[in-house]
Design goal:
68 residues, elongated, 24% strand, 3-stranded mixed β-sheet, 1 helix
Length: 68
Amino acid sequence: MCHYWAPERPDADINYTMAQVDITQPILDFKGTAVNLFGVGPFAIDEGLVLSETGNVVRIYNTNTRRS
């Protein structure tokens, strides 16, 4: 499960939070980032969430790790 929204930071184009859903218990784990991070930029451009000035660069702020 992923959540995207407009950033509150000047050094990012989009915020990204990843949660892993436990299938045996009603738990969401926000500790990891998973490989999904590699799809965040292309997804954000394709869905019109960001307009990349260069066409292929999206500055992502990962809220799980608190890093851009």
